[in-house]
Amino acid sequence: MLCVVRVVSTSQLPIDLVGQVTAALPGTIVEVPPVGHVGLAGVDLRDADALVCLLLDKIDAKLLASAPKLRVVANCAVGVDNIDLAAAAAAGVTVTNTPDVLTEATAELAFTLMLAAARRLGEGERLVRSGAWTGWALDQLLGVQLHGKTAGIIGFGRIGQAFARRALGFGMRVIYAGPHEVSAEGTERVSIDEVFARADAVSLHCPLTPETRHVVNAARLATMKPTAIVVNTARGDCVDEPALIDALTAGRLAGAGLDVFVGEPKIDPRLLSCPRLVLAPHIGSATTEARTSMAQLCADAVIAVLSGRRPPNVVTRTA
Question: pTM higher than 0.85, yes or no?
Answer without folding.
Answer: yes
